[in-house]
Amino acid sequence: MDPVCCHLVRGLPAIEEGDDLAAMVRERFPVQDGDVVCIASTVVSKAEGRARELEGYSPSARAEEIAGKLEKDPRFVEAVLEEAAEVLLDDPFLLVATKFGHIGVNAGIDRSNVSQGRILLLPVDPGASAERIRCGLGKECAVIVTDTCGRPFRCGVAGVAIGWAGVAPLRDWRGERDLEGRELEITLEAIADEIAGMANLLMGEGGDGTPAVVLRGLSLPKAGGRLFRPRELDVIRACLSSRDRRH
Ligand code: GDP
Ligand code: MN
Ligand code: MN
Predict the structure, then answer these.
(1) Which of 19, 109, 203 to mutate to test ligand 1, by most ligand atoms within 8 A of the CB atom?
(2) Which of 10, 19, 87, 194 lies 20 to 30 Å from 188, alpha-carbon distance?
(3) Ligand 1 neighbour 104 (Cβ under 6 A)
(4) End-to-end Cα, the chain, rounded Å
């Protein structure tokens, strides 16, 4: 097996609306066929003009109520509600399903690495963003849009994939054999999340200014599958919904 290498793309500037991220990465790193290019959702959002002034939001009564409970800015809560397809928890934090299917605290809206008084919404459709960046890179590569997220059951945040193109986010091990020759029956491995975790580790969370990481030497399945669990198969989500009804 070839060695697997990770490269941080250095020297990217502050990203502005309208910037061509693919061109900016290409200018700084010779992306090749087979590479996996990971880009932080933060910069995808900036390039796609997803920064908003908090002042632009007029909180609904529901936003005011939740904001009171959480001791948050009602305009921020309003922004989260506007990005949400469904609210799963509104106490002790706001956990929502976004319109594109990702479930995250505060709809993944960030206040770090954005200027004062502004917030940054996640891309409207990170899968489509990944596909556009892949086209712009002009190689047979994969693109993964990452975000740093908290996880249920585990402490600490980690990088996950919220959009992908040119790669299957899940590797299907079903039908393969284990060491004892037994057939694997259920294992779907979330490879795009595993890669996003590694990329996120290299990017850092602060002022490093390194939102792009290229992995080389991985052999990955090319297409198919989704990381967002269908609602009807999600028992934890069902528990949260029934908890909500009890209130
Ligand atoms: P998120 O995980 O997608 O929410 O992104 P983070 O805010 O954690 O940032 C990930 C990486 O991107 C960090 O190294 C940040 O310093 C970097 N970053 C964020 N915004 C910019 C930007 O506009 N330009 C550059 N060059 N880096 C940025
Ligand atoms: Mn984020
Ligand atoms: Mn991050």
Answers:
(1) 203
(2) 87
(3) no
(4) 55
Encoded tokens for 193: 């999340």
Give 183 Cα–ligand 3 centroid separation in angstroms: 38
pTM for the full predicted model: 0.96
Task: List pLDDT tens digits, range 160-199.
Answer: 999 999 999 999 888 888 898 888 887 889 999 999 999 9
Q: Tell me the two tokens of residue 199.
A: 């990329």
Kindly give, in sequence order, each residue whose CB lies less than 8 Å from that of residue 227, ignoring residues fewer than 6 positions away. 160, 161, 164, 169, 170, 190, 192, 193
Q: How many domains, the chain?
A: 2
pLDDT the model gives residue 244: 59
For residue 146, give its domain range: 1-50+122-229
Q: Is 181 in the pocket of ligand 1 (CB under 6 A)?
A: no
Q: Would you call 70 helix, strand, or coil by DSSP?
A: helix
Q: Do 214 and 153 share a structural domain?
A: yes
Both 44 and 144 in one domain: the answer is yes
Q: Which atom number of ligand 1 is nearest to the Cα of residue 110?
A: 4
| Ligand nearest to the CA of residue 146, numbered in listed order | 1
- Does the pLDDT of residue 246 top 70, yes or no? no
d(CA 109, ligand 2 centre) in Å = 7
What is the separation of C-alpha 69 from the centre of its chain, rounded to a whole number of angstroms?
A: 27
